[in-house]
Write a structure and sequence with these properties.
Structural class: mainly alpha
Organism: Tectimicrobiota bacterium
Radius of gyration: 23 Å
Largest sheet: none
GO biological process, one term: regulation of DNA-templated transcription
Strand content: under 5%
Distance between the termini: 56 Å
Oligomer: single chain
Shape: elongated
InterPro entries: Arc_rbn_hlx_hlx, CopG
Protein name: Ribbon-helix-helix protein, CopG family
Low-confidence stretches: none
Number of strands: 0
Number of helices: 2
Length: 77
């Protein structure tokens, strides 16, 4: 593992210290988890943007999924 120095606002550090005390963890562990979650969100947003761009380039046609309509019939309940 590598040590990284960061500059944070005092109020943010106080909030983090409060949360890590409640969770019974450390600043470092909490920060690693938060950064992993942030990276996952960035990747998810990038995929969503790719999907939007793909559908903008090649929009769904009205009858594109009509072959599957019979497959979606659930029958009587």
């Amino acid at each position: 593992m590598r040590t990284v120095q960061m500059t944070l606002d005092d109020t943010l550090v106080q909030e983090i210290d409060h949360v890590v005390k409640q969770l019974g963890t450390t600043r470092s562990a909490f920060t690693r988890q938060a950064l992993r979650a942030a990276l996952a969100q960035v990747r998810r947003q990038a995929r969503e943007q790719q999907h939007r761009e793909g559908y903008a380039r090649l929009p769904v046609t009205l009858d594109e999924f009509s072959n599957w309509e019979d497959e979606h019939v659930w029958g009587e309940l």
